[in-house]
Amino acid sequence: MPPRPFRPFGLRARAQLAGAGFPADRAAGPSATAAREPRPKRAGHPLRAAAIATVTTAAVFGASDATTGTSRGMLSVGATVPLVAVMQLEHQTAQLSITQADIDKGYIDAPSASQFKVKTTSRAGYRIDVNPRLQIFRSVEVTLPSGTVSLGPEGGAIVARGSPTRETPTSMSYRFYLERDVAPGVYPWPLALSAHPL
Q: CB 3.0 to 4.6 Å from 32: which of 28, 139, 168, 182, for a disulfide?
């Protein structure tokens, strides 16, 4: 009977050789040693890595866009209404006729000489500026429905607090305390009125 061929790579052959004094790894041959060493990890395919990077980047940008859209949705938009006051003059005496009797008294009255309406967008109210146009008086008393205001020869301002709900007609009467050197005659109306918001 012919002898059986020697197979050094089987488990039984490895055990026999190890018992005979040969190292098992050496007896198993180079193929066994290569089988026991850890196989190196294969590098990812470059196209696959690029695709993953592209998907990740797109996801990040998408989250950023979504966040920006949310922020825009939370912004509040408002409009600022400019503060204005408009005076509508209903009546204004155009002239002031001064007689010698007025000069002797030292003053002259002009009842209801100014009649107007004021409309304003200010909740605080408005003011009426009274500016002199002729230096024929030392002072002037201005009477409104709310009271009387005394102004000097340089004029001044009359304040109306609160925003009117409607354009209420206002009437103003005057008492001019005349300068001592004023002469009798007919003069243009010595005051100019203007309205301004507070």
A: 28
